[in-house]
Amino acid sequence: MPKKLRDLNDEWVEMQDEEGRTYYASNVTHQSQWHAPIISPPKKSPGGMHRRTSSLPAVPPTSLSETDRNWREEKDQAGRTYYYNVISGVSQWEKPAVLTQIEEEEAGTGGATTSPSTPSNTASALSGSFETAKGSYLSSPTAASQSSRSFVVGSGGGGRGGGEMGRKPSLKYGMSEKNLLAQRGRMDSADSWTPPTRRIAIDSPPSRPLPSVSMSTPSTPTRAADLKRAPRLPIDLQHDIQRFQLHDYAHHHFETHRKGIFKRKMKTADVLKFQQTPIKKALQKSTVNVDAAIRVFKSIVQYQTIPAMNDEAASAGRTVATAGILNKSLRDEIFCQLCKQTNLCPSWLVEQRGWGLMFLCLCYFPPSSTFKDYFLSYLHSAMEVNDDKKDMRKNIVERCTKFYHFHSQVDTASMWEGIEPTLEQAKHAVYQVMHGPIFDALLEHVLLEHDMYPLSPDDDVSHVPDILIYLCNNVRELNGFQTEGIFRLSAERDTVLRLRRAFMEGNMKPKIRDPREAASLIKMWFRDMPSPLFGASIHHECVSAGHSLEATMGVFNSAIFPAVYRSTLAYLAKFLRDLIENESVTRMGYENLAIVFAPDLLQNPSSDPMDIMKSVDSERSFVKHLIQGVGSDAP
Known about the structure:
There is one protein chain. This protein is α+β, with helices and mostly antiparallel strands. Helix content is about 45%, strand content about 5%. The chain contains 26 helices and 12 strands. Helix 12 (about 370-385) packs antiparallel against helix 13 (about 390-410), helix 21 packs antiparallel against helix 22 and helix 21 (about 540-545) crosses helix 26. Mean pLDDT is about 75; it is low at about 45-60, about 110-205, about 210-230 and about 235-245.
């Protein structure tokens, strides 16, 4: 267990890890580091006045307001000079008059010594500077000309939030970022430092982006060498992440949350991290149905924290996704809650389930246009968390990003209208976000995972999922065409479930020893789709067309049947026709195969047992005609 050594100030604590190494932790940002933080406490004489530690000239700050004292001179990418105020956040091209006043006062004081009893010039000067409770000023005009002028209040960064990733270090007046980073051990050589790149507006000076909320607390402090070796995101992506910070969105759009018996206001960074206790109000101010938002959060916590992924946990996850499908106004609230519940989680298992639930929601609906940029910024910032799960988290984020963009390229709202996730899909969402959707997934999701889905009219629509090809080949190679009762007689259930789990864990070619195992997996793959190929919305047309081959092919070739499904169904029909050629051995003809596959390919929307029984014969006839005609020379 790490051991606390001493408090350095209200923010920083000196700690010792299990190996006896000393590091420093922040109570504000929840970050840790190896090097000691720079702390500038006010130094006062016994009489309460600031005292001088040298006879260097000083500039009195007492005549200026707090905002006036915090202007900084900056350079944009084109080398143009602009001025930025770290308190008000204002940037402008014109030089503020207050900077001119400070320079004139510096020139006026010259090299005169200051008596410690003079209130206007009383301060402590250290290495050519003097310090006050508000910050540090440069005393030497020579040093001032060698660096950008800056003054930052306190020992923190010039903005909201915190953390190693987004918090800007405190700079003394006259100390450049280059020298400060070299002093803090963040790089080996100050000469190799490159100033940060900022997004530049054409008609106005740059505005300083808000710092990002830290994603997680490292289990051990991060060494400077590790930070130096870490890969950097592309510049354009860095700009977008800085521009659309989730912390910034929360600051403007979240409700004020309080905690404790004294109802103290929670900081934005605390609101944005994992919480197991229930929330008492919605996260967003714009959420209309507050009660529904509170229930959704309770279901998210249940899904993440129930030890075993049983039916209770899966039901909670399905409730969250269904709430977003049925209520568009809740979608941004759900994604905000999921961002919160995947940030600074107590364990990797809890975080995994949070990502799994986020992926389950992204399979059916995206965030709104208002929140999407902040949501994508959060996803990309999650990839930058430097811990032992970084590679797995990167894989997760890339899959979530792919499925988000799918909604912007395809009209998924009309495509999946009325379709809801199944209990099994919610139960296995973690497998899907880790390894990709295979079982318990819509055919569109399986094709998209393997970059087979046609996203434009020019794309090929003849792709067949690899899993179907692999399983059909196994039936052939293991002499399934000479096995009596193939597809009618199932393999051992435990063996089939073990192979199914292997597929879901990313093994796309598990060892199959019996043709009945492959045949059972083919039926299970079609049956476990949340919506079968011939869904409830076109069930009536399918039943009505079952009386003839021509009518069946009319439905297959019509616009109501998605074109992307046709190649998959054609491959299955051709495979079954090859099997029927050995009917004398397998005892499996058109009628028997139609009985087996009808429940897997069609979905009856009715819950009335009598209606279901009445349509059974028509469903079987429809599937029989599909096997006969699809992919053949039939009309």
